UniProtKB/TrEMBL annotation:
<keyword id="KW-0547">Nucleotide-binding</keyword>
<dbReference type="InterPro" id="IPR027417">
    <property type="entry name" value="P-loop_NTPase"/>
</dbReference>
<keyword id="KW-0067">ATP-binding</keyword>
<protein>
    <submittedName>
        <fullName>ATP-binding cassette domain-containing protein</fullName>
    </submittedName>
</protein>
<feature type="domain" description="ABC transporter">
    <location>
        <begin position="18"/>
        <end position="48"/>
    </location>
</feature>
<dbReference type="InterPro" id="IPR003439">
    <property type="entry name" value="ABC_transporter-like_ATP-bd"/>
</dbReference>
<dbReference type="GO" id="GO:0016887">
    <property type="term" value="F:ATP hydrolysis activity"/>
</dbReference>
<dbReference type="InterPro" id="IPR050107">
    <property type="entry name" value="ABC_carbohydrate_import_ATPase"/>
</dbReference>
<dbReference type="GO" id="GO:0005524">
    <property type="term" value="F:ATP binding"/>
</dbReference>
<dbReference type="Pfam" id="PF00005">
    <property type="entry name" value="ABC_tran"/>
</dbReference>
Length: 121
C-alpha cells in the first residue's frame, strides 16, 4: 500500500495512530482503490467536506490516476471540478439520465440548465 500511496502523491509517513486530514484520508482511499482495481474506479463526491487545498490534492491524484489509464467515474455536485477533470459528463435529473456531453461542449451555465431543466441565460 505504501508504494501505491507514494505513487499517487500522498506524503503521509506517520506512526500507527495518527489523525489524518480529510485530503490525506481521500488520497489513501484512492490509492487503496487503485491497488484493488486496475481498470476503473467509482468516486462519489471525493472532494466533499474538504478544504480548498485538500480538494486540489485529491483532484491532482485523480488526474494522475487517469494518466495511468485507469478510468474514473466521478459523482460530484462541484461543477468546476467536473469541468476540470471530466472527459465526458453524464447529466442526471431526478435520477434519470438527461444527456452525455463532451467536456469541450460543456459550460457551467449549460450544465445547470440541463440539471434543472431550465434555460439559463
Amino acid at each position: 500500500m505504501r508504494s501505491r500511496t507514494c505513487t499517487f502523491g500522498s506524503r503521509t509517513s506517520a506512526p500507527k495512530h495518527v489523525a489524518l486530514s480529510g485530503g490525506q484520508r481521500q488520497a489513501i482511499a484512492i490509492a487503496r482503490a487503485v491497488a484493488w482495481c486496475k481498470r476503473a474506479m467509482l468516486l462519489d463526491e471525493p472532494t466533499a467536506a474538504l478544504g480548498v487545498e485538500q480538494q486540489r490534492e485529491v483532484l491532482n491524484i485523480i488526474d494522475r490516476v487517469r494518466a495511468k489509464g485507469i478510468a474514473s467515474i466521478l459523482v460530484s455536485h462541484q461543477l468546476p471540478h467536473v469541468l476540470e477533470i471530466a472527459d465526458r459528463i453524464a447529466v442526471l435529473r431526478r435520477g434519470r439520465l438527461v444527456t452525455v456531453i463532451a467536456r469541450e461542449d460543456a459550460t457551467t451555465e449549460r450544465l445547470v440548465g440541463l440539471i434543472t431543466g431550465l434555460e439559463v441565460s
